[in-house]
Design goal:
- It comes from Salmo trutta (Brown trout).
- It catalyses: ribonucleotidyl-uridine-RNA = a 5'-end dephospho-uridine-RNA + a 3'-end 2',3'-cyclophospho-ribonucleotide-RNA.
- It is built from ten helices and twelve strands.
- The chain is an alpha+beta fold.
- The protein has a domain at 97-106 and 117-350.
- Strand 11 (326-335) and strand 12 form a beta hairpin.
- It is globular, with a radius of gyration of 19 Å.
């Protein structure tokens, strides 16, 4: 199961801060029409990162898979931030999703109606979310950033003073969370981050919010936060990034997302509505995401700490971590050696349920 965590750019006209007062989804989703190339999506997701290399010894992991020794230590840190994610929602209680059917293939040779026939889901993914969680500080700070971006790559980003203040407020909030405190302490011990909070905050701002130009763009048109947590579109046809469940839920609620069904292949476990990782297909803004992935129900601070850790700790961009019941490969691309790019976890397998 491929689980990607990224963000898409969203125009201000499609976002409202009044979302927390809306009722949960309860009606069938609208039908959209699209004809898109799956190969375009694959190509878009594989932008060439700057080359990074390392040489580390490897050992056998707890499930028999080869794992890099450094990943064993990182897994302990990920387990710690998972345990400290006090704002994580409980599946079936705080939220409910409806997997429905498996998404069909996206074929450029098929017309719009035939592509719609491959839709494996007639209803939204989310059937219920307890939106009281959105009133918590970290969720409020996160949601305030979702309307700060233009979705199309190639369109220059302009950061207003108000948006910059929201970025700083979000980082201040993250630094107060138990998850980021754990991540910061570990990064300091590894001499990968400064010990002082002001200096660490500057490092985080550079990694996540400093703008950079994607290939073919003449001016800065993207940022790590935008791509990893909000999402982007390319050419009006392809969705890149967009791996955050909060953004997915809010956009689906507004009628901008058409969930097409779950994704699974022979080498990945079957999806489970009571697990926190899901691979899926959906359309957004007339574009298609043939295969995306998300953590479901986790807090913004968990994902922010997780990806910051993996980005700074792993020079070869891919790490394997074991936490809770999940065995996951996490990939962070390094743009210009200093900006985080596409970030996604690939679910390798579920381990045995842990018993208290």
């Amino acid at each position: 199961m491929l689980v990607k965590i990224c963000a898409f750019k969203q125009a201000s006209s499609t976002h409202t801060n009044s979302t927390t007062g809306l009722n949960p989804l309860s009606c069938p989703k609208p039908t959209d029409h699209f004809s898109l190339y799956a190969s375009e999506q694959a190509k878009a997701e594989q932008e060439e990162p700057d080359p990074v290399s390392c040489s580390l010894q490897s050992t056998e992991g707890p499930t028999g898979h080869i794992m890099i020794e450094a990943d064993r230590e990182l897994s302990a840190m990920v387990q710690d931030i998972w345990d400290k994610d006090v704002n994580r929602l409980k599946p079936g209680t705080d939220y409910r999703i409806s997997l429905q059917g498996k998404a069909g293939p996206v074929n450029a040779d098929m017309n719009d109606d035939m592509n719609d026939d491959n839709d494996g889901a007639g209803y939204p993914l989310f059937s219920f979310v307890d939106e009281r969680i959105f009133k918590k500080e970290s969720f409020l700070a996160f949601i305030s950033l979702l309307d700060n971006y233009e979705s199309d790559t190639g369109e220059p980003e302009i950061v207003t003073p108000e948006e910059e203040a929201e970025n700083h407020k979000f980082l201040d909030c993250m630094l107060r969370t138990p998850t980021m405190k754990i991540a910061h302490k570990y990064l300091v011990e590894k001499q990968l981050s400064p010990e002082g909070l002001p200096e660490f905050k500057k490092q985080l701002y550079r990694i996540w919010f400093e703008l950079y130009a994607r290939r073919g763009a003449s001016k800065p048109d993207s940022s790590g936060f935008e791509h990893v947590f909000v999402g982007e579109t390319r050419g009006g046809r392809t969705v890149i990034g967009f791996h955050n469940w909060i953004q997915l839920y809010l956009q689906e609620k507004l009628g901008h997302i058409d969930y097409k069904g779950y994704s699974v292949n022979a080498n990945s476990p079957q999806p489970d509505e009571n697990k926190h990782i899901l691979a899926l297909q959906f359309s957004w803004k007339n574009g298609i995401k043939p295969k995306g992935s998300i953590f479901v129900g986790v807090s913004p601070e968990f994902e922010f700490a997780l990806y910051t850790l993996c980005f700074l700790v792993s020079p070869n961009e891919r790490v394997k971590v074991f936490f809770s019941i999940y065995e996951v490969d996490i990939v962070c691309h390094h743009y210009n050696q200093k900006h985080i790019g596409t970030t996604y976890p690939v679910l390798v397998k579920y381990q045995k349920e842990q018993k208290n």
